[in-house]
Amino acid sequence: MPSVTAHLLRRAVRSLRENVYLSLVATGVVASATLLLGVFLVIVHNLQAVTGGWERDTHISAWFAPDIPVERRFELKEQVGAMEAVSAVRYVSEDEARTWLAERVPEVAPVLADLGPDVLPASLEITLAPGHDDPEAIHRVAETLALPEFDGLDYGQQWVERFNAFLSMLRILAVVLGGMVALAGVFLVANTIHLVVFSRREELDTMRLVGASDRFVLVPFLVEALLQGIVGSGLAIGALAVLHHGFLVRLQAAVDLGVAGEPLSFLPWPMVLGLGLLGVALAVTGTWAAVARFLSKVA
Amino acid sequence: MPSVTAHLLRRAVRSLRENVYLSLVATGVVASATLLLGVFLVIVHNLQAVTGGWERDTHISAWFAPDIPVERRFELKEQVGAMEAVSAVRYVSEDEARTWLAERVPEVAPVLADLGPDVLPASLEITLAPGHDDPEAIHRVAETLALPEFDGLDYGQQWVERFNAFLSMLRILAVVLGGMVALAGVFLVANTIHLVVFSRREELDTMRLVGASDRFVLVPFLVEALLQGIVGSGLAIGALAVLHHGFLVRLQAAVDLGVAGEPLSFLPWPMVLGLGLLGVALAVTGTWAAVARFLSKVA
Amino acid sequence: MIRLYHVSKRYGDIHALQDVSLGVRKGEFCYVTGPSGAGKTTLLRLLYVAEPPSEGRIWVGGVDVTDLARGHRHLLRRNIGVVFQDFKLIPTRNVGENVGLALEVLGTPRETIQRRVRAVLTTVGLGGREEESPRVLSGGEQQRVAVARALVNDPAIVLADEPTGNLDGAMAIEVVEILQAVNLRGTTVVVATHDTGLMERFPYRRVRFDRGRLVGEVPCRL
Amino acid sequence: MIRLYHVSKRYGDIHALQDVSLGVRKGEFCYVTGPSGAGKTTLLRLLYVAEPPSEGRIWVGGVDVTDLARGHRHLLRRNIGVVFQDFKLIPTRNVGENVGLALEVLGTPRETIQRRVRAVLTTVGLGGREEESPRVLSGGEQQRVAVARALVNDPAIVLADEPTGNLDGAMAIEVVEILQAVNLRGTTVVVATHDTGLMERFPYRRVRFDRGRLVGEVPCRL
Ligand SMILES: Nc1ncnc2c1ncn2[C@@H]1O[C@H](COP(=O)(O)OP(=O)(O)OP(=O)(O)O)[C@@H](O)[C@H]1O
Ligand SMILES: Nc1ncnc2c1ncn2[C@@H]1O[C@H](COP(=O)(O)OP(=O)(O)OP(=O)(O)O)[C@@H](O)[C@H]1O
Ligand SMILES: [Mg+2]
Ligand SMILES: [Mg+2]
Description:
Chain A is an alpha+beta fold. Chain A folds into two domains: 2-54 and 163-298, no CATH class; 59-154, Alpha-Beta Plaits (2-Layer Sandwich). In chain A, 71% of the residues lie in helices and 8% in strands. The two termini of chain A are 34 Å apart. By secondary structure, chain C is an alpha/beta fold. Chain C has a domain at 91-146. Chain C has seven helices and ten strands. Classes of the chains: A alpha+beta, C alpha/beta. Chains in contact: A-B, A-D, B-C, C-D. Chains A and B meet through helix 2, helix 5, strand 4, helix 7 and helix 9 of A and helix 2, helix 5, strand 4, helix 7 and helix 9 of B. One adenosine-5'-triphosphate sits between chains C (11, 14, 16, 34, 36-42, 85) and D (136-141, 166). One magnesium ion (MG) binds at residues 40-41, 85, 161 of chain C.
């Protein structure tokens, strides 16, 4: 370690030791603000995973008219599958359709058996290629499918729109809430650090008066803030992981959530890293601003 | 105003004036912690309103066997309606059932017209009386409905369980998150107040040394905290209302959310009051604890 | 009025006071002197119960204050006016409020406080400066504010720790004259000081400390 | 070394200094005296550029410091050792670190700092007390730490504001002897003091202030 770094670290560590209480407070506040943000990110992340699944599920169902021979149905399947906008086609037989309906609407399951084998006609379930799954593209594809062999088309117009509305609302909500949590976090951390520096303002004054440059005063505060930020973020991420694995995932297993399906996942590493960096950045910039402000008031 | 109160208020206001910066910080921190909690409460509250609706929607569908004459159906409706556990019965004709299915599963809407008039049989939609809507009670009612006239019973066993699981998970999540936000809030407020008192510890010391009782030192801090708490909570509730009416409700109107249905409501007054009191209590107890702690270190 | 019986005070290895026995009668005027670090401030701190002694017993005003409970200390302190060596003025309050504090803690009415504060500040030569902040005062001015606060509530005992260290000769004499006047009204006065000139001019009893021990005493020559 | 040209300093209505013109030559020893509130501390504050004057110009060490930019002030201060009237010790650092601070800001190696700190603390009679906190020191001990810090980096100018106010006679003489020794090595020394006894004993040049005005001067009688 070059001697300047060693020297700065030594000064910062000494200062931390001298101001144990203030350092602990700063670290704790960084940790809790980061933890709040982290909890929020985990929720948004899982929300996105779940609703991302919903989005990907939109597809077109093309119901066959009665009495289309099976060969013709498969011909049509090939044709449709060859379209540029289509990424996959699945043939859904009458039987499958019934099973699907019974699952989809459990209320009718008890009576489906009595309704004969062909409650619903067979259909093609058409999944659109990425880039062709916006409402307009879906509409274009639907128009090319307007053949006499199809009795009806359902491209989930209504559902797509509803989900899009719902998702955009969720996203705006998430952004707004995230923004608020972040703002509150920044405010609280900045405030705390300001108070911490406030209790040491006479020290700043004295250091200047015995010949310290602004940099000499500032740098150990920044190194200190860096350490506090690293420790605080580390604690927050640790707590987040404990909360997630020790609690959320177990909870999910316990209630065996049939609705959301996918297991709740932890944040991906880049996001964890980003969160940590955010905590560190908060501590450092908050300290920087506070010290600079007090220095500007000092001769 | 009795002169003691006037005196205390005067002392507190003077102290606020003397420590403008520290007071502003304390007030701001109380406000942001309360706001965070409030945002959280609004979300939980609306969640509960929505999911409360889901719960109340659970009912039993009793599908009629084919060829039950209409008179008999209405007789059965009367009989079922007379049961103690049942609060309402609605007769759902074949037509209604089809319309319902088309709404419930829009994918099949295009082909329903071709499936003949009687896609689904008629049914009784039985709503259970409060206190009889837990899974066991539902099961008991279902058993008494095991008549030959009914072709199938659906009492949403699966859905009820799924929803219950989902709801209990949501609730546990809400409690945990709420607890965390509350804890973080308490920690941050307590910390800030501790720092604020920390910067005034020499003042405490001096006051004791010139003959002040602990109460004399403590009370103005508490009155100050009360004022800070009231102002802080007020700001938080105001901000919450602005956020809600100016943003959330408009947002909802803009995306016309077809999924959740009910308009997002603001917190009921008792909850607003509770939130405000919580903010005030936070400020006062935080100050109390901090001052008492520093006093205990002072001769 | 004040009695110390074999009192010692240790801070770790440092013996700030060692086996001090001393009595100050009611109405007496007494200097505590000795080199820097002799234990003068420590002695005064024990008297207003900022700390308990490590050994020995202490009586102040007839009360055994050796282990005085926290809940009673402020009652004792209301009868003791202290001029602290480092002044201990509250920087966020103005001069008048700092001086008035010693009356405010007694629940004195505002008008009385204002009147008394004005009077005592005039005595120490700071009349009309009630509204200023102690932060902007000169060293000597701060010291006189501290003297004023110690005297404002007419205490039975005045403990003054180096009350003239920041004052010029004339002003120092004035302050001691004020203490003398207070003493003549029956107040017990203990002054820790280095100023031999002053002690010559006002030759009251002196007790001399060195390294925590009471090493000598000069009786009052008035 | 130091020149003031028609310098005034006002705080609102208060004229802390009024039209002061004064020169102190390199290597001179000079007392600044006058009653409490005369403006002694204000004069010294202007010299180490804690504040700018309201009027007039000031030179220190050949540099016009009247409107010295913030970024250069610390360079000036590294050549000025100041004993502050209120000591300005950092309570969270121990005595050695407080004294060493004046060397640390220069980037002096640690070993040199330790050696110099030990030496200068011994000079002021506090050898071996590096590890203590200034909070627990007696008033006179704190004052000597402040003196030590002002001298530790061998500045070209020493400004001492009431450096003996908390010291007993013998110790005060010792401190002035230290300042004298420093002065004999060529350092310019300005001492604000009330202690007429000391000024008699070490009869250097005196400039006398009263209510902000320079009202008299006694030349050096050494
Ligand atoms: N809280 C403390 N912890 C450790 N040592 C202390 C404490 N208080 C005082 N001392 C030490 O006790 C000794 C006596 O201190 P005291 O303040 O009583 O001296 P003093 O006679 O008032 O000196 P001065 O004239 O310099 O004010 C000093 O050496 C001081 O360092
Ligand atoms: N920042 C300030 N604001 C307002 N008034 C001030 C300020 N600083 C000093 N003064 C006033 O200026 C006058 C001179 O103060 P200064 O500290 O220079 O006196 P001094 O000669 O050092 O006195 P002492 O011997 O008591 O220390 C005093 O009346 C003081 O109250
Ligand atoms: Mg002392
Ligand atoms: Mg001064």
